[in-house]
Amino acid sequence: MTEQNWDKTVDFLVVGSGGGGMSAGITAAGQGLDTLIIEKGKKFGGSTAISGGGIWIPNAPTLTRKGAGDDPEAVRRYLRTLTRGTVPDARIDAYVDAGPKLMELLDRSPHMKLYWVRGYSDYHPEEDGGSALGRTIECLPFDTRKLKEDEQFQRPNSMKGPLGLWVTSKDYHDLAMVKRTWRGRKASMIAAWRVGSNVIRRRHMATGGRALAARLRMVLKDAGVPLWLRTSMTELVTDANGTVIGVVAQREGKAVRIGARRGVLLATGGFDHNQEMRDQYLPQHGRADVSSGARENTGDGIRVGQQLGAAVDLMDDAWWMPSVLHPMGAVIPLVSERCIPPSVIVNAEGERFTNESSPYVNFVHDQLEGGHVPAWFVMDTKAKNRYPFAQVLPNMPFPQGFYDSGVVHRAATLAELADKIGVPADKLTATVERFNGFARNGKDEDFGRGDSAYDRYYGDPTMKNPNLDEIVKGPFYAIRCEAGDLGTKGGLVCDENSRVLRADGSAIAGLYATGNATASVMGNEYAGAGATIGPSMVFGYLAVEHAARHTLPLSESTPAVSG
Predict the structure, then answer these.
(1) 3-state helix/strand/coil string of 311-322
(2) Comparing C-alpha atoms, which of 448, 335, 337 is closest to residue 384?
(3) What is the mean pLDDT of residues 172-186?
(4) Residue 199 and which of 141, 175, 379, 542 are 20 to 30 A apart at CA?
(5) Contact of 375 with 500, CB cutoff 8 Å
């Protein structure tokens, strides 16, 4: 590879600045590799920065220090049970073994401060190896003023409230019960204190994914790893042997050729907002773009990998999330809301079709399989007054725009409500009557709602069954529920070292991938909160570890552009 062919040459090039990309950049700097991260967007952090920011990495130091370590074999059993043979054992083993090593590396930085979200259950705690106490960790709140000139390039997320109020995932859990428990009332008092404190101290506090992205960016800055924004990869560059040796990118309106001596990592996200790819790959009722992923996620990494013959898998799946479409266009995920006790979600026939409180991926899998799009979230006034819903606080009315757009309907009786949303009144009434019987007995005999520790995490602990209560008090509400997603989960097939593979199992030399640009190590499942970000970070780490140990078989001939 001759230097004059390139506008810039580095040892290792990372495309994408989400959790996986930045973790890879930090790892590469620790290996002494000259590294560059390029980012398509105007802001850094990708979907990580607009997420809840959970990290699912068993045996991370944050967990072991709290006595929450695991037998690695138990974690392997759990993941193998969930993935049902669809993910190679080598990939699962690499994730389980390398995860703690990555977190030990990050733990050395004074910027990386995390805590265990104790009690946030794995999504399938009843399975062999699952944990009811959970394995999710999250960054402590971070004052983004410390980013200095880079603060302006942070993505906003939904974890920031008015007047500088900041809310962690634990706060969110407690605040959902503000009308019901002492923990909820205590959380509301803490929230009020934070508002007053921030007015005085003028801090810019970030939580969740925004805090994680900010902390990773601080570690990158300390390591001297540059991050170029507004730099969009357009093509991979290969030599005569087919080895990936760099990329062509657009930066400030100009084509830039960047050479990479040790390899290129694609951390470019999924095809969340590429309608053509959604139409091609996703199931019929999941093709509408109701995605919370970063707007820049349009399948760029998957596309250029396919041009070099890369295999893909899981392209018909996503990190599904039942969602409400805000009248102004925003996507509002329904997480805690589906655990509101006096509520059901029904299909066009006015009937329940699954456990409403189940993990969101499983809920939407059932929704899509039955063609229940849209579904309708039905609750009574008691529920409306007790619990927050879709960013609307208890006792507060839905904004008129929700009614005008047809997202929310209200009626004095269930029969009138059924007429408004176009479902059979007799069936909706029968569904609610049957559900009310389950609520009185404390057992959902149809779908087992409330049986799992995951269901109960966001439930109401004052109830006999935290997820069941009678729907009796009018007026009644129905909210349109879409099959949304947090991002797609299908993509390039990779090995345990994050090398991109062809259909015959051979590796494309010099090309690595991680995150939603790849076929997920979780298969069609979701192990726990942070099982998107966790693997993205770990397989970014593994890509660098492999690249640092291996010299690319570079040809001295003139590079050829892919495609």
Answers:
(1) CEECCCCEEEEE
(2) 337
(3) 92
(4) 175
(5) no
Copy the structure tokens of residue 444: 């959902």
Residue-wise pLDDT for 255-289, tens only, equals: 999 999 999 999 999 999 999 999 999 999 999 99
Which pLDDT band holds residue 420 (cuts at 50, 70, 90)?
Answer: very high
Q: Is the pLDDT of residue 560 over 80?
A: no
Write down the pLDDT at residue 1.
Answer: 46
The radius of gyration of the chain's CA atoms, rounded to the nearest angstrom, is 24
Q: What distance in Å separates the CA atoms of residue 479 and residue 59, rounded to the nearest whole number? A: 40
Q: Which tens digit of pLDDT belongs to each residue from 184-195?
A: 999 888 888 887
Beta-strand (E) ranges in 132-208?
Answer: 136-139, 142-143, 205-206
As to burial, measured by CB atoms within 10 angstroms (0-12 exposed, 13-18 middle, 19+ buried), residue 202 is: exposed
What is the length of the chain?
Answer: 563
Q: Residue 246: left if φ>0, alpha if ψ -120 to 50, beta else—which one?
A: left
Q: How far apart are CA 491 and CA 224, in angstroms?
A: 31
Q: What is the pTM of this model?
A: 0.96
pLDDT in tens, 352-377: 999 999 999 999 999 999 999 999 99
Check residue 202 and give its pLDDT. Answer: 82
Q: Which amino acid is it at 270? A: G
Q: How many CB atoms lie within 10 A of CB 538?
A: 29
Determine the Cα–Cα distance for residues 520 and 204; give it in Å rounded to an integer: 34
Q: How confident is the model at residue 494 (pLDDT cuts 50, 70, 90)?
A: very high
Output phi, psi for 38, to 5 deg. Answer: -115, 140
* Adjacent-strand bridge partners of 352: 346
**Structure tokens of 390?**
């879709």
Nearest C-alpha neighbor of 519 from the set 316, 312, 367: 312
- The angle formed by the CA atoms of residues 326, 372 and 475, to the nearest 5 degrees, is 60
- Please state, in angstroms and rounded to a whole number, the distance separating the CA atoms of residues 91 and 85: 11
Dihedral sign for Cα 493, 497, 502, 505, please.
negative
Summarize pLDDT for 124-145 with one digit per residue, the tens: 999 999 999 999 999 999 999 9
pLDDT tens sequence across 508-519: 999 999 999 999
**Tokens at 553, concatenated:** 């078989």
Which H or E run contains 11?
strand 8-15
Strands 227-228 and 507-513, bridge-based pairing: unpaired
Residue 509 CB partners (closer than 8 Å, separation 6+) = 241, 242, 243, 244, 552, 553
In DSSP terms, which residues pair with 166 in a beta bridge?
160
Q: Answer yes or no: are the C-beta atoms of 474 and 385 closer than 8 Å.
A: no
Q: Count other Cβ atoms within 10 Å, centred on residue 253.
A: 6
| Rounded-to-integer distance, Cα 491 and Cα 306, Å | 9
